[in-house]
From TrEMBL:
Belongs to the DEAD box helicase family. This is ATP-dependent RNA helicase DbpA. One of its GO terms (cellular component) is cytosol. Its EC number is 3.6.4.13. Residues 36-207 form the Helicase ATP-binding domain. GO terms for molecular function: ATP binding; hydrolase activity; nucleic acid binding; RNA helicase activity. It comes from Larsenimonas rhizosphaerae.
Amino acid sequence: MPDTAEFSSLPLPAALLDNLASLEFTTMTPVQAAALPVVLEGRDVIARGRTGSGKTAAFGLGVLTRLRLEWFAPQALVLCPTRELADQVAAELRRLGRSLPNLKVLELCGGTSIGRQIHSLTHGAHVLVGTPGRVEALLRKGSLSPDALSMLVLDEADRMLDMGFEEVLEAIMSWLPVPRQTLLFSATWPEDVQALAQAGLVNPAMVQAGDDETPPAIEEHFHLVERGGLLDGVTCLLSHYRPAQCLVFCETKRETQETAEALRAAGWDTVALHGDLEQRERDEALLLFSQHSARIMVATDVAARGLDIPDLALVISMRIARDLDVHVHRIGRTGRAGQAGRAVTLFTSKEGHQLQALASYLDRELMDSPLPAPGHEGPSPAPMVTLAIDGGKKQKLRPGDIVGALTRDGGLAADDLGRISVQPTSSYVAVARDKADQALNQLKNGRLKGRQFRARRLRIR
C-alpha cells in the first residue's frame, strides 16, 4: 500500500472512520499504511519504526476494530515499558474510539493501588493498557482473567527488554490464550527482541517503515566542556536559545535531581523526573511540563521513555549516552511531526572516545564546537500556571464545566486557558500566569456543578 493511502481505503467500521475524519486524520503515516492492512487481516505483525511514526494508531485501530463491545470482558492487552507511555497510549485509544458506545479502556500500572485496579477489573473493560510488572502480578493473583484476551500488543518491545522485563513478558504470554493475534512494535531489532518475537508470534508479517521517510529537521550540536562545567554548559545553552520548553537528559537519578534543583535555584521553572520520586511527584512533574507551567524538565532516560511532548524545541544531553541507541531516542524527542528541532550534547575530554564511537555508530562525522555565547536576559517564568481542583470524574466534572466557570462566571477569555486534565478525583487546568490569581479566586469562591470545590496552585518542587 502506498505511503499516501487514506484511512478511508481501509475496511474500518463507519463509526471509526467518521471519528478519524472529525480528528482530521485522513492520510496514513508510512508505518500505518504498511501495518494496518495486515493487522486488520488478523495476522501477527512485527513493525519497526522510529518513535513518533504514528504506531499507536497503527495498532490502536486494529484493536478497536476487533472489539465486541457488547461483551464486557478484556479482549485486548497493550503492554508498555513505563506508566507514562501507558497513560499516553490509553488516552489515544480513548480518543480514537470515542465514537464507540460504552468503550472502556483500563490502565494497569505500578504506582497505583493494586486493590483499586482489582476492583475496577470486577466491573469489566474492553482494552487493558499496562506495564509488565503490574499485569503479571494481577494474572498471578487470579484477579485478571485472560480467557477473553484475543489480542496482545507489545509496544516499544526493545525498551521493555532493556528494562529487564524479559522473564515477565514470557510469563504473561504463557498465561494468554492461543490462538491470539500478537503485534510487536520496536524501534530497534536487537537479538533479544528477535528471540521474543520468535517465541511469541506465529508466522508474523514484517513491516519496516520510516527509513525512507524524510528525516526530522533536527539541528544537532556537540560541545566539549571542562570537567565540572556540565551544569554551566546547560545554563549557557538555556540562556542562549531561550526555548519555550526543553528536556535535559542526565545519566543518574542523583544527577537529575541535583541538576533540577540547581536550575530552579538559578530562576528556571524546572521539574525533575526520575525513579526515586513518588508516583504523585512524577505525575505532577509531567502535568506541569505538559501544561507549559514548567519550562525545563530534567530526566533520566528510563523515566522519560515514551514521552511525546509536541513542539519541543530543544533537547540537551549532559553527557553522551553510554548506550548509543539511547542517543537516537533522546534526540528523537524534538523535531516531531516535521517541525524543526535542536539537540545539543555536552561531553568532557574524558568522554572523547564516546564521541568517536557515536560517530561510528551513526556512520557520519561528528564535530564538536564551542558553546554559544549566553544571552543577556535572565530566566523568564513559564507562561502558564496549573491550578488543581479537588474534584474529578467521580464528581461528574467535565472540562466544559471548568471552562464555563472560568470564562462565563470568572471573566477570563478562552485564550487565557490551556490544557485541562480531568482525572477520577481531581482536575487540573492551565491558566495564563497573569490571570492565575483571578482564576483561582473564581474556582475557590464560585461553583462547579452547583457546588464548591477546594482549589490551589500546583507548585513546582
